[in-house]
Design the sequence.
């Protein structure tokens, strides 16, 4: 019998973002990493040390019900895969953070060039690039 584990909101959000970006991680890995780095305690709440040291920024609920950091720096700490990109490539909307075409292309191409990516991850990357081409996404 498979056990259905309910993970804290910050873990679910980190996991969803990493999967959306095509990274092959489990919720358990995200949870353990966040605990190991002192971002959250075992109940999923941000630690005081994480707040004091800026690992967890103030978050606000978006119109789709997720909680997102209010600053680009906070977003990058929550989603380290974006640290390599300049802050100017990101914008906060009522639905949460969005990245411009340059970032989307770069992330998709990283996934396509990763020899360990799965067929599903590659298809997601191709889909992201196709959407950019259809919308005329410019850098």
Sequence:
């Amino acid at each position: 019998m498979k056990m259905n584990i309910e993970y804290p909101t910050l873990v679910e959000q980190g996991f969803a973002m990493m999967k959306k970006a095509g990274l092959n991680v489990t919720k358990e890995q995200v949870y353990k990493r966040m605990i190991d780095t002192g971002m959250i305690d075992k109940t999923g709440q941000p630690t005081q040390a994480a707040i004091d040291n800026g690992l967890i920024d103030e978050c606000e609920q978006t119109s789709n019900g997720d909680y997102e950091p209010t600053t680009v720096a906070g977003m990058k700490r929550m989603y380290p895969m974006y640290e390599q990109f300049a802050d100017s490539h990101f914008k906060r909307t009522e639905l949460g953070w969005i990245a411009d075409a340059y970032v989307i292309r770069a992330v998709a191409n990283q996934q396509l060039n990763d020899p360990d990516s799965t067929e599903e991850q590659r298809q997601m990357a191709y889909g992201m690039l196709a959407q950019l081409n259809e919308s005329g996404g410019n850098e």
In short: Strands lie at 59-61, 67-69, 90-93, 96-99.
